[in-house]
Amino acid sequence: MNASPNTPSELLNAFRTRHPTSPRLSWYGPDSERVEFSGRVLENWVAKTANYLVDELDAEPGTTVALDLPLHWRSMVWLLATWAVGATAVTGDRAAGTVPDAAGTVDVLATVDPAAVHERLPAAGPAPLVVAVALPALQMRWMGDLPPRTLDYSGDVRSHADVFFAEDTPEPSAIAWQHNATATSYAGLFARDSGDRQPEAPRRQLLQARDGWDAVVRSALMIWAGGGSVVLLDAGIEATDHLCSTENITHG
């Protein structure tokens, strides 16, 4: 029996090689949007995004990538891609304004509101690379005008390679994820409590964006490491009995 993944690269390899056509992430969003990704397709999105980060944004271990995004399938892809590169992902509650300001130590800022970000960019001095992220699955590019020096992720990412090979591996003690005041190292991403046991069979787990980044991301990593799959609901979607039955939910 294969050991459970303990690093982002091992997890992506598991997506690609262990039952690669089975669902790993299903998303329910506004306007009746439902998107499902097999392990192979999810890994492909992560690989393209990681290559985009390296090729277009010069990301590497030590780079800080702030996600001014809601919990969404795209934000999960950005997280996994940032970790594939070995960089540090920064998240926070957008409504509370806790995503770091555009200035400071942020190197890359992915956002759903590039106009608002542009307004708070410093007039002089260093500023992050700003990337506009369109959320709808079928939106092939950013609709509307973009501020100066803002890149269009949705319009550019598909041209990047389907396979990602990291040139450098982050130190286990390096910070993988900074969420509000909580920092998680690469060694800690897949850490389990002493009482945790791997489930006997892969789970089909319901996760809800309303529960917040910390709960959703940590649960998703553990479920994926155990070979399971995630059904992620936007904050405005109700977890009805019909939905749970249709999706064959076993937990949550």
Write down the CATH class. Alpha Beta
Widest sheet, order of strands: 7-6-5-3-4-8-9
Number of domains: 1
Residue ranges: pLDDT <50 for 5 or more in a row? 94-100
What's the overall geometry?
globular
Residues in β-strands, percent: 15-25%
Describe this structure in words.
It is a single chain. With 252 residues, this protein is an alpha/beta fold. 28% of the residues lie in helices and 21% in strands. The longest helix is centred in the first third of the chain and has 19 residues, at 39-57. It is globular, with a radius of gyration of 18 Å. The protein has helices at residues 8-17, 39-57, 73-85, 114-119, 153-156, 213-225, 241-246; strands spanning 23-29, 33-38, 64-68, 88-91, 108-111, 129-132, 150-152, 175-179, 182-185, 204-208, 229-233. It has seven helices and eleven strands.
Quick rundown:
Helices cover 28% and strands 21% of the residues. The protein is of the alpha/beta class and 252 residues long. Strand 3 (64-68), helix 3 (73-85) and strand 4 form a beta-alpha-beta unit.
Write the layout of secondary structure elements.
Layout: H1 8-17, E1 23-29, E2 33-38, H2 39-57, E3 64-68, H3 73-85, E4 88-91, E5 108-111, H4 114-119, E6 129-132, E7 150-152, H5 153-156, E8 175-179, E9 182-185, E10 204-208, H6 213-225, E11 229-233, H7 241-246
Helix pairs in contact: 1-2, 2-3
What are the main properties of this structure?
252 residues; alpha/beta; Rossmann fold; 4-stranded mixed β-sheet; 11 strands
